[in-house]
TrEMBL record:
HAMAP family: Salvage_MtnA (MF_01678). The keyword Cell wall biogenesis/degradation does not apply. Signal peptide: none annotated. This is Methylthioribose-1-phosphate isomerase. It comes from Planifilum fulgidum. It catalyses: 5-(methylsulfanyl)-alpha-D-ribose 1-phosphate = 5-(methylsulfanyl)-D-ribulose 1-phosphate. Its EC number is 5.3.1.23. Substrate binds at R55, G56, A57, R98, Q205, N256, K257. SUPFAM superfamilies: NagB/RpiA/CoA transferase-like. One of its GO terms (biological process) is L-methionine salvage from methylthioadenosine. It is an enzyme of class 5 (isomerase).
Length: 358
């Protein structure tokens, strides 16, 4: 299966829609198995998001948009009350699947707004419009990622070493990724970047997903354990860090995969620029600072017996936040599809978010 994006990415798409079903690449099984979940009910979509079958902020939003459509498509006949009640209930259920990525709420809000704009029309028409809206969210995400890639590329140079954390690649989006988009574009231009992928404890998105998709693309990627980032920086092998984000607060604080903050501090200590690739759908002007971003805590078993092998004593206390906050002062620039934002972020983010979408 290939993405129809104008660029033939080497890995299968994270989210697809075929024959009235939502297809989600089950990322829990990568890199060894390529298996798609075929979903027809919103509860299945919610579960797939919660259990990380689909993950990465933009991909979560896209999946939820289709999930909302699946929720209302079987409301029978012209029962308006049932339709709107089902829409709101499904929206609430999907909206609580994961707390940190704001793209989830962004996509659901956009879907509900679309439905509201057609209030009074035949329900069949509204349902059809919702499916088209979910398709548009997916299509636009690929375009947004490509633009982020172009802006990000202007900050890199041929021959550089680039370190990334977690997976903000094609598997986390409709195509290209956010943080990984410039790496794909660099490859198209014949540049030789050397990428270091943090393995990203505890569920190894860096090892299982980033290393997988970059390797499939023929990009020079070296996998390192999270605790090796300082060493490769000290050796002078890294000239830029680029990561994705689940939510950027109005002051420029950034939520991303746990461990990102540590990487940012290390980058500062070594004089290396730390870039955050953020589609505007990840920027939340209603959340004033990083302290206001809800951080998901995940089950202890991810740490004590990841992938089925017990590596800690039974019953040990575990702290397992899925994300951390990197304070704005550590961020060299935020790269959006509308351009590169430099500090002071409060002003820059406001300007970019007020820009009418092109
Ligand atoms: O828990 P995950 O795998 O959903 O976390 C993903 C990340 O932290 C990504 O960096 C972020 O969502 C950006 S994806 C373009």
């Amino acid at each position: 299966m290939r993405m129809k994006t104008g660029m033939d990415l080497p890995h299968p798409p994270a989210v697809d829609w075929k024959e009235d079903r939502l297809l989600l690449l089950d990322q829990r099984r990568l890199p060894t198995e390529t298996v798609y979940l075929e979903l027809t009910r919103p509860e299945e979509v919610r579960e797939a998001i919660r259990e990380l079958a689909v993950r990465g902020a933009p991909a979560i939003g896209i999946a939820a948009a289709y999930g909302l459509y699946l929720g209302v498509r079987d409301v029978p006949g012209e029962d308006e009350e049932d339709f709107w009640e089902t829409l709101n209930r499904t929206c609430d259920r999907l909206g609580t699947s994961r707390p940190t990525a704001v793209n989830l709420h962004w996509a659901l809000r956009r879907m509900v707004r679309r439905a509201e704009s057609l209030r009074g029309k035949p329900l069949s028409e509204i349902k059809e419009a919702l499916l088209r809206e979910a398709e548009a969210i997916r299509r636009e995400d690929a375009e947004v990622c490509r633009r982020i890639g172009e802006h990000a590329l202007s900050l890199l140079q041929d021959g550089m070493g680039v370190l990334t954390h977690c997976n903000a690649g094609g598997l986390a989006t409709a195509a290209y990724g956010t943080a990984l988009a410039p790496l794909y574009l660099a490859k198209e231009r014949g540049w030789r970047l050397k990428v270091f992928a943090d393995e990203t404890r505890p569920v190894l998105q860096g090892a299982r997903l980033t290393a997988y998709e970059l390797k499939q693309a023929g990009i020079d990627v070296t996998l390192i354990c999270d605790n090796m980032a300082a060493d490769v920086m000290r050796r002078g092998w890294v000239q830029a860090v680029i990561v994705g984000t689940d939510r950027v607060a109005a002051n420029g604080d950034v939520a991303n995969k746990i461990g990102t903050y540590g990487v940012a501090v290390l980058a500062r200590a070594h004089g290396i620029p730390f870039y955050v690739a953020a589609p505007t759908s990840s920027i939340d002007m209603e959340t004033p600072t990083g302290a206001d971003i809800p951080i998901e805590e995940r089950p202890a078993e991810e740490v004590t017996q990841g992938f089925g092998k017990r590596t800690a004593p039974e019953g040990v206390a575990v702290y397992n936040p899925a994300f951390d906050i990197t304070p704005a002062e550590y961020v060299t620039a935020i790269i959006t599809e509308r351009g590169v934002i430099r500090p002071p972020y409060a002003e820059g983010l406001r300007r970019v978010m007020e820009e009418p979408p092109k």
